[in-house]
Write a structure and sequence with these properties.
The structure is a single chain. This protein is α/β, with parallel strands linked by helices and 416 residues long. It contains eleven helices and 26 strands. The strands form seven sheets. A five-stranded parallel beta sheet has the order 3-2-1-7-19. Strands 9-16-10-11-12 form a five-stranded parallel beta sheet. A five-stranded antiparallel beta sheet has the order 22-23-26-25-24, with helices on both faces. Helix 1 packs parallel to helix 8. The longest helix is centred in the C-terminal third of the chain and has 15 residues. The chain is globular. The mean pLDDT is 95.
Length: 416
């Protein structure tokens, strides 16, 4: 009997997993189940190009014909109601579907604050194409927009909306932007550029309530100020979408718990992307990463695991964000860094910051310095740590190139 792999979630990770299985030579049946209507699409443009585009067209991850030509049974607009592990089947609204292998790529869901007025019209989150369509329609007449949260989604959208003529205020509870994603130096630069673009950023400020009569009209802050708002965007982070996993009895702790091969606590079940909490080779502990690249890398990896071709997951993590005229690119994880070195050539809206944990290079943050970013991906893949003096004088690239020549080190990105 033909084996069957079911993939729940048709975002970047789920779509890639389906295609990667065929690329790895998997001959069994593949069913890809997506809750959204339509074909899988690129999500990063939703906060930028999509909002600016008059036609509002989505960028598909791959052509529609790919799913048919790859013999992938794609089922859009379908919700999995529950998973029965002993029976090895997913229960849908109109029946069930059996599986030999199950890949959970359920992503994450927007975090919603518990404040008065959160249900008013004109209050949005941004994770899906439907969210983006609604925001695009509403912002056409919105003069004053308040964004709650100073993370990537909030700042990307803030610059887009400000460029289109709205007055934008960002409320950040902490004392700086991008606290979970970028270094203080990078955050300070981003804050400065946002101010130049007309975005008003307020630190140590919490939204206490949203005010309005049916539709939001203002935001009441923790310091008692009332800020006019025709529209509010909530961008305070996301939580892993683990409801199906919890009900099925899978181990969940900060995400769906998986091992080094991305296997869940039940045989033949895997989790990838934003919903998965996995042991990270660099941190030495479990973590959950919300990034397109992580979802894509893990999708390719799990396809190899299913085909008995992969070892422990050890991809180099990297991230990016386009905020106005700033291309932020980050490689590695800087959460435990205790020393930071700025590379030569900083200024003129360009910056590269090297992060060290004791004597080990663990991450590099860059703004409009793509060469430094690519160099960082190679160095972290090779487990190479440069001297601080070489960073300051701008000699890292040449010295690293010579080191690779002499040692024959592997600088290819680690995906599996």
């Amino acid at each position: 009997m033909r084996h069957h792999t079911v993939i729940v979630g048709a975002g970047h990770g789920g779509s890639q997993a389906a295609v990667a299985l065929r690329q790895e030579g998997y001959e069994g049946a593949i069913t890809l189940i997506g809750a959204e209507v339509g074909y899988p699409y690129h999500r990063p443009p939703l906060s930028k190009a999509f909002l600016k585009d008059d036609e509002g067209k989505l960028q598909l991850l791959r052509g529609e014909a790919v799913y048919g030509s790859s013999d992938i049974d794609y089922r859009p607009g379908v919700n999995v109601r529950r998973i029965e592990l002993e029976a090895r089947r997913c229960i849908l609204g109109d029946g069930d579907i059996p599986f030999d292998n199950l890949v959970l790529a359920t992503g994450a869901i927007s975090r919603i604050p518990s404040i008065d007025g959160i249900g008013l019209n004109g209050v949005f989150t941004l994770r899906t194409a439907l969210d983006a369509h609604r925001i695009k329609q509403h912002m056409a007449t919105a003069e004053n927009i308040v964004i709650i949260g100073g993370g990537f989604i909030g700042l990307e959208t803030a610059t887009t909306m400000a460029a289109l003529g709205s007055h934008v205020t960002v409320l950040e509870l902490g004392d700086r932007l991008l606290a979970r994603a970028a270094s203080p130096l990078v955050a300070a630069h981003v804050k400065s550029r946002l101010a130049q673009g007309g975005v008003d950023v307020r630190f140590a400020t919490q939204a206490r309530a949203l005010l309005g009569d049916g539709t939001v009209r203002a935001v009441l802050t923790s310091d008692g100020e009332t800020i006019p708002a025709d529209m509010v965007l909530i961008g305070i982070g996301a939580d892993p979408n683990v409801a199906l996993a919890v009900e099925a009895g899978l181990k969940v702790d900060g995400g769906i718990v998986v091992d080094e091969l991305l296997r869940c606590s039940a045989n033949g079940v895997y989790a990838i992307g934003d919903c998965a909490c996995f042991p990270h080779w660099q941190l030495g502990e479990r973590t959950r990463l919300e990034s397109v690249q992580n979802a894509t890398d893990q999708a390719r990896h799990v396809a190899g695991v299913i085909m008995n071709k992969s070892t422990c997951y050890s991809a180099v993590p990297w991230f990016w964000s386009d905020i106005g005229d700033m291309k932020l690119q980050m490689v590695g994880l800087s959460a435990k860094a205790d020393r930071h070195v700025v590379a030569s050539g900083a200024g003129n809206n360009a910056l590269a910051v090297y992060h060290f944990e004791r004597d080990r290079l663990v991450a590099i943050d860059t703004i409009n310095r793509p060469a430094d970013h690519m160099l960082g991906r190679k160095m972290i893949a090779a487990r190479y740590t440069p001297d601080e003096a070489d960073i300051v004088t701008g000699q890292v690239a040449e010295i690293f190139k010579e080191w690779v020549r002499v040692t024959g080190a592997d600088i290819a990105p680690r995906v599996s």
